[in-house]
Structures are given as C-alpha cells and as structure tokens.
Amino acid sequence: MISEDVYRKVHPKEYLKRFIDKDVRPDGRAVSTARYLRLTIGSINTAVGSALVRLGNTTVLAGVNATLIRPNNANPDKGIVEVSVELLPTASGESRNVRGEEAVVLAEFLRTLIIPHIDVSTLCVEADKLVWCLSLTVYCIDHDGNLEDSVVLAAVAALRNVRLPTVRMVDGDEGGDIENGIENTRMIDADNEAEEGNESIMAVVSSKRTESLELDNFPLTVSFQLFCEKALIDPSAEEEVVCVSRVTFIMKPTGDMRGILKEGGHILSPKLYNSCLAQSKERVKEYMKKLQAGS
C-alpha cells in the first residue's frame, strides 16, 4: 500500500478525480469555491501606483513608475504605457527559460487586455514636446496557480491607484527662477532627437501627486480549469498541471461579459458555460468590492 503523498505524485490525475467525483478539491474547496482574495492598494511608496494581490498562496505585486519623455513622432500627442511581467525564482521551480517564456506570454496578455482601455492622450503634457511614459511591472512572487487572474487584478488595481503630479511647461528665464527654489523642476534633455537639435525642455513638476489615470471600463478575468465535466474556479497549481483545458471569462466591472478565452479540447457545454458565467459575475462583485475599498 503506497502512501497518499506518493499516490498523489505518481497518479496526479486519478488523485484529483477521486476528489472531484465527490465535488470537493484536494485543498478542501468546493468545485465552485475560489480562494480567499486579499488586495492591498498603494503598497509601494516609491511608485505612482501599486497593488499587492494574494490569492490563496499565489502572490503578485504590481507597480507603476512614471517618467516624462519626448513623445513618439508617430503619436506626438499621446503618452506611452509599457508592460512587463517578471516571474521571480521563488514563484516557480521551472527553469529560467520556462519562467521567461511564461512571463512574456503574461505580459502580452496584459497588453492586449488592458492598454486599449487607457486613454493615452490624457498622458500628454504638451503635444510634440512632453508626455508621460508609464511603466507597469508585475512581479509574480509566489505561484500556486491562476497567475492570469492575479496578474490582471494587480495590474488594474495599480493603474487605478496611479496619481501623477501636475506638470506645466516653462521657458528658460522662468526656469532659472524656479531652479533657485521657487518650485521643484525636472529637466528633459532632447539632444538625442536629431530633428530638434540639442534642445532642452524644462517643465515644472508639482511635489504633490493628484492626477488620476483615466482607465475606461477596465477588464477583469475569472478563470476555470475543466476536468471530468466540471469547471474548477480559481485553479491551484496542482490542478493546472492535471487539467489540460482552461476557460477564462473576460468581464466588465458591471458584471457583463466582454469575451471568453478557451484553451484545450474539453467541451464547454451550455450548462457548464452558464454555470461559469454566473460564478464569474459573482466573482467580479467581489473584485469590485476590494477595488473600491482600497481606492
């Protein structure tokens, strides 16, 4: 007779099936029960926006840094939003290459999902001269499943938390007075812009951050692993390894569905679809309570 731990490792699919057949999961949750969610907003003092998500044993930290730069010639009146994801060694036992590949996939997922809902024209200080560049970095600290939902929620919460200082352009004479202590200043050197020559741009940057980011109708996601004709909401890492099919509902803050992503060949029946959609609506309500409580 082999021990339960050995059986779990040697026969992971059969082990999980034993539980799912009884409508319970190895960690004690019901099939339709998500893990406890903790959301801390504004957790990084040095960032203009940040959020920490703890979903069971999965931990994700998102931070937004802001830099004043010259705009892109193709979009002189629009700011820039950059997105990156890092899987720390503590988050996964996978090799560095595998972690890197997963981070690239998650970053692209975030870009596709979130950036279209940011009005980058509001990041323009003065067309052709100065715009904000926001760098959103999401750190996956601990990975025990469902990184997708955790990363999206952390990113949305951090962006909603963004507060930028007010900025106004000044000429050289006024800039000299300001540098002597009237106000805080920041110099933007544009000498690498060939068409502008060695021009420098001066702007007055307020010491207080008050300008929020316009994030219109932002998306939220609720994911399920499909196994034995059942949908496991908020899957653990163990469940993700065993279950080859996954479905993610992309939701609006109102609870309406925006879209759906599906991986794997498991059939999503109408009954299962309706069940997942109903659970997603309830999960989004919980997301919104956490987001609004931390605003």
From TrEMBL:
Which molecular function terms from Gene Ontology are attached?
mRNA 3'-UTR AU-rich region binding
Keywords in alphabetical order: Cytoplasm, Exosome, Nucleus, RNA-binding, rRNA processing
**Pfam families according to UniProt:** RNase_PH, RNase_PH_C
Does the record bear RNA-binding in its keywords? yes
- Cite the Exoribonuclease phosphorolytic domain residue spans from the record: 35-165, 218-282
Its subcellular locations are: Cytoplasm; Nucleus, Nucleolus
| Entry's family note | Belongs to the RNase PH family.
Main localisation, per the record? cytoplasm
Protein's name according to its UniProt entry: Ribosomal RNA-processing protein 43
Spell out the SUPFAM superfamilies in the cross-references: Ribonuclease PH domain 2-like, Ribosomal protein S5 domain 2-like
Give the organism the record lists.
Gracilariopsis chorda
